[in-house]
Amino acid sequence: MPIFEYKCNECGKEFEELVFGNDSQIKCPDCKSSKTSKMLSVFSASVQSSSGGGGLPCGQGDCSSGGFT
Description:
This protein has strands at 3-8, 14-18, 36-38. The protein is mainly beta.
């Protein structure tokens, strides 16, 4: 059951919705309009390399120790 981001074409509200199966009638929680559009979600993923770093660039983690303790 994925969570999708939607935008209401009537009032402009952006919201998230937990979708069960093929639920094509998503309604805006504010104005209750069914004129909504699924938005493209941006996500990030990190991969821990063998050299350490914990998957975070320097400045966001402890680069000198090679990870978190």
